[in-house]
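One-letter codes give the sequence; the fold follows as tokens. Both lines appear below.
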Amino acid sequence: TVSAILASVISIFFVIKRTSDDSYIKIGVLMPLTKSNAQFGINTKNGIDMYINEINSSGGINGKKIKCIEFDDEGDPAKAVSGYNFLKDKNVSAVITGAASATSLAVVEEAKKDNIPVIITTASADGITYNSENKELFQNVFRIGFTNSFQSEIMAKFAKEKGIKNVAILYSAEDDYSSGLKDAFIKECGSLGINVCAVENFSMNSVDFQGQLGSIKDKNPDLIFVPSYYESDGLIVQQARNLGISCPIVGTDSWSGISDSTSDVSSLNNCFYCSSFSSDDPLSQKFVE
């Protein structure tokens, strides 16, 4: 479970690097707590607080309680680097970050120099933990979510298993997450012999996707891949169904919560996505409660 992973990693961090004040363990939390990505950072911070309170109430780790020092990176890579340096100066044992790939990539680049352990939550860019050019695996970086390439491969293989021949893609070129997933999906489709018959782009914060969906409908795909966030995904699915598009529409982990972003839940029939977390999993029930 995520809780078990977090506990194990924090225990390892404590062994690796004790704080200057030995009365507690200091953990840095670097998240967007304001501006456009705040919902992701705040939700993550709430989860971290819940679990650290649980650890502290049961006696801490090796008799030491955990203290969080937080910094708001506002979803900006430059501010994330400033935040990392601020936390480093506070002698934290480790940094928990990773609400977005762009900020995570910037932090990891700095943390590699200092060998400070970093745990990534939801950021999915492959380069956060691995340099594909020189085959370097970053020894101080850990993550609990799926990578872009893994998710895209999973959904392309899902399409292959369903006998899909032609797929369309609707993504946002403005977003690194969406673009990375799109590229990896196209690559895997090529390996599997699946034809990509249409690729359409939309601007972030769009609410009207009928033009792109109309173009996709004209290509008559067997499946549509939509690698975006649930707020957009819910609107896209509902508008697609209203246009008479009945084929499967699939996505990735950012689809979690999509049922809350559409007024017609029935439009989600024949939709699928992959995720590292399910609220229905028996192992998740304590957290859900």
Summary: The chain has a mean pLDDT of 91.
